[in-house]
Amino acid sequence: MIRLLRRLHGVLQEALLLLTRLALFGLVGITAVDVVGRVAFGAPLGFAYELVGVLLGVAVYGGLVRAAWRRDHIRIDLLQPWLSRLPAFDRAREAAVWLLELSFFTLLAIYIFRQMGALMRWRETFLFLPLEKWLPLAVFGGLASLAVVATLAAVVPGLRPGDGERAS
């Protein structure tokens, strides 16, 4: 069962990595075309602002799942030399950070889905993109929910990153 979950996780991580990369390349491409069109031809892409916002959300939330799983968040190590002499504090700090991450990602997913529900009721669409605004939020909410699951799985023995490499 653990092997199946690890394999499923690997496929999901690769798909999210591809999605994140495509979103970032899309951001660069759309922005470049918009700037060239605006400066050289006086004709910017009307939908560029909206599409860049959607692609930025996909890139951020897609990357969030990987960061949560690998526990690869930004760390400020200003006090690290002093705190490394206190291993009990380090374990408590790690537990507190994990709980904070879990709480934040859970609240983020809930908030996104609440906002999505409101936009569904209002049937609000983008100004230039022929798309209702709740659709990208459904994707963001799904990715934020995956970040919650990844945060939980990152501390489960056998599912933690690195456990499979040592066991294989």
TrEMBL record:
Gene Ontology molecular function: transmembrane transporter activity
Transmembrane segment boundaries: 21-41, 47-69, 95-114, 134-156
Entry keyword set: Cell inner membrane, Cell membrane, Membrane, Transmembrane, Transmembrane helix, Transport
Domain Tripartite ATP-independent periplasmic transporters DctQ component: 27-156
Subcellular location: Cell inner membrane; Cell membrane
Entry keyword Cell membrane: yes
Short name of any one Pfam family annotated for the protein: DctQ
Topology within the bilayer: Multi-pass membrane protein
Record-level GO cellular component terms: plasma membrane
Keyword Transport appears in the UniProt entry: yes
Subunit organization: The complex comprises the extracytoplasmic solute receptor protein and the two transmembrane proteins.
Annotated function: Part of the tripartite ATP-independent periplasmic (TRAP) transport system.
Family that this chain belongs to: Belongs to the TRAP transporter small permease family.
The name this protein goes by in its record: TRAP transporter small permease protein
Organism this protein belongs to: Stappia taiwanensis
Lineage: Bacteria, Pseudomonadati, Pseudomonadota, Alphaproteobacteria, Hyphomicrobiales
